[in-house]
Amino acid sequence: MVNAKRQKEMKGLGFLLQNDKEHYAVRFLSKAGNFTTQELNNINKIAEKYGRGYVGLTTRLQMEIPWIKDEDAKNVMEEAKRLGLRHGGTGQKIRPLVACKGTVCLHGNIDTQEICRQLESKYFGTDTPHKCKMGIVGCANNCAKANINDIGVMGRTIPEFNLDNCIGCGLCVQGCRQKALEVIDKKIIYNKDLCVSCGECVKVCRTNAALAKEKGAEIFVGGRFGRGIRIGDSLGKIFKEEEVVFVIDKIMEHYREIGNKGERISGVMDRVGKEKFIDDVLKKID
């Protein structure tokens, strides 16, 4: 049986004690949800040698090998280091970052995986008042659930319409899942209240009648999901793609300045007021 002190020590290294209290699942870390084929081969080798020949996927796009014996843990760490594999991802710190495949996805408005890699390089594993999760998605489909992360990024394209170029073909209407567009008298009618800024109308328009008025990302703060659920609040504007990391720098700076130990961003916002938290972050950005 693994004692409590050993359990805590190993958890910080990404070795999570299983319910039999004798084995670990070791968590190997992806880069923006991606593993190279060589990394996958090396993970397989460790699973075959020290586990039971299979690997599990986590909800945050990492991989875990279960059934690692306590006496094998040191050898697993040494072998993982030699093979160039990273393990970890728990504790009061920035947890593994998640990005959807927006970089290559048909619907993506931003380079989700590059943003994720930049943020991971800067923040992953760094200490925070409490655990802190970041998620990046490319569009309103929100596959990686950006707004239930402590910090979430969602790609947006806000459209505008040049009716002089509109020929009433209806391609944009067909592409609009929200039914925010309709053709009347061979011209597009746009219902802004129904639009979710997914950018599909801009992508499909062949006459430059639908144009990108703004393209970038909406950023949410204070989301969480689990024992306590809270939908994150938007900072209230669209940031250019190249601004996203800078804005998150300011969010993290503010969180670390005023967050109490054991307090997630949602807890800080509940304590000081979400409007004040967002206003103070925006002041740092400006």
UniProtKB/TrEMBL annotation:
InterPro entries: 4Fe4S_Fe-S-bd (IPR017896), NIR_SIR_4Fe-4S (IPR051329), NiRdtase/SiRdtase_haem-b_fer (IPR005117), Nit/Sulf_reduc_fer-like_dom_sf (IPR036136), NO2/SO3_Rdtase_4Fe4S_dom (IPR006067), NO2/SO3_Rdtase_4Fe4S_sf (IPR045854), NO2/SO3_Rdtase_FeS/sirohaem_BS (IPR006066). It comes from the Bacteria. Transmembrane segments: none annotated. Signal peptide: none annotated. Residues 157-186, 187-215 form the 4Fe-4S ferredoxin-type domain. Keywords: 4Fe-4S, Heme, Iron, Iron-sulfur, Metal-binding, Oxidoreductase. This is Sulfite/nitrite reductase. It comes from Clostridium gelidum. The gene is asrC_1.
